[in-house]
TrEMBL record:
One of its GO terms (molecular function) is aminopeptidase activity. The keyword Transferase does not apply. It comes from Paraburkholderia caribensis. Belongs to the peptidase S58 family. InterPro entries: ArgJ-like_dom_sf, Peptidase_S58_DmpA. Gene3D superfamilies: L-amino peptidase D-ALA esterase/amidase. This is Aminopeptidase. It comes from the Bacteria.
Length: 353
């Protein structure tokens, strides 16, 4: 399907699959709604196959620009763990997906909300209202369950799941993913990223240092001034490196470096949020004492920081590379990068020659 060779960002090697699923245990599933004006969906990221409430993983989030309507960030900040899979959807679908997460947790653990504390659903969103009739409130609880059931090591990227109706740099955006292998203190660890890319204006687009968006904007011969950056991006980072929630907070902040390289300035109307988690250890729900593996020293984290920035930048490029053109409500259309720049390979070679 892909006629172009996607550039490799940075110098670190990629994992076997080149996605977030290179981190052992991580799986991704989609439910895609594509019917006329309804162009939306749900994407789910699972840290492992065990019960997420009983076997929590350490996590932390960074809000780079807070123009967003997510659910669950306050408790993640306080307790530093995940209790449900991570869900992505459109802005008006957040409540339905959170409700589905709660029902799924109750079905597995009837003690929740009675003998045990309540569960913290975790849902992130971007506004897909340009292509999708967001006012139709099309997302239902069943769509979350379909995405959850579909979670697998191999998954589609581009115009699928939560990414179905998303735009990126005035082109078709959506789901992108990448991975990098980092050597730390003589051991290899994997850092994987998955993004829901829905941000930026065309003149800003930069791919591997190439100001590609300026050329594409010039070709349009538009005299209309470029609008301010709007939209959002959700960046999910997974690693098998043994980190605690404080260190994962530091890792999540490095997503901003990868995001900035693509041309984003985290504009006023953009919700730019990152979450990082580790699969190296779990926190049992019923435990008086928590056994942790030896954690990496902070002074050894730089290779992971590099891997995070590179994998996020690569994942954004992957979202553009993988997307297909979509026409949605009121005949609004977003062209894929492949259609907008059929000579893309030549443009990139010209810059690097």
């Amino acid at each position: 399907m892909n006629m172009f060779s996607m550039p490799h960002i940075g110098t670190s090697p990629t994992g076997a699959l080149g996605t977030i699923a290179d981190v052992p245990g991580v799986t991704v599933g989609h439910c895609t709604l594509a019917d006329g004006p309804i162009q939306t969906g749900v994407t789910v990221v699972r840290a492992h196959r065990d019960d997420p409430y009983r076997h929590k993983v350490p996590a932390a989030a960074s809000v780079i620009n807070g123009f967003g309507k997510s659910i669950g960030l306050v408790q993640v900040e306080e307790l530093g763990v995940l209790e449900t899979p991570i869900a992505l959807t459109n802005t008006f679908g957040v409540a339905a997906v959170a409700q589905a997460q709660i029902r799924a947790a109750l079905a597995s653990n009837p003690q929740i909300g009675r003998d045990w504390p309540t569960v913290n659903p975790l849902v992130f969103e971007c506004n897909d209202g340009y292509l999708n009739d967001i006012q139709a409130l099309a997302i239902e609880e069943s769509h979350y369950m379909q995405a959850l059931d579909a979670a697998a090591v191999e998954f589609e990227r581009g115009s699928v799941g939560a990414g179905r109706g998303m735009s990126c740099f005035d082109l078709k955006g959506g789901i992108g993913s990448a991975s990098r292998v980092a050597n730390v203190a003589g051991r290899d660890f994997t850092v994987g990223a998955l993004v829901l890319a829905n941000f930026g204006r065309l003149p800003m687009l930069t791919i591997d240092g190439t100001p590609l968006g300026r050329e594409l904007h010039r070709r349009k011969q538009s005299t209309t001034p470029a609008k301010p950056e709007q939209g959002s991006i959700i960046m999910i980072v997974a690693t098998d490196a043994p980190l605690d929630s404080r260190q994962l907070k530091r890792l999540s902040m490095r997503t901003a470096a990868g995001l900035a390289r693509t041309g984003s300035v985290y504009g006023h109307g953009s919700g730019d949020i990152a979450l990082a988690f580790s699969t190296a250890w779990t926190v049992p729900h019923e435990s008086d004492f928590i056994a942790t593996p030896p954690l990496l020293g902070d002074a050894r984290l730089d290779p992971l920081f590099h891997a995070c920035a590179d994998s996020v930048e690569q994942a954004i490029v992957d979202a553009l590379w993988s997307a297909t053109s979509v026409t949605g409500r009121d005949a609004h259309t977003r062209l894929s990068l492949r259609e907008a720049a059929p000579d893309l390979q030549q443009l990139l070679k010209r810059h690097t020659a």
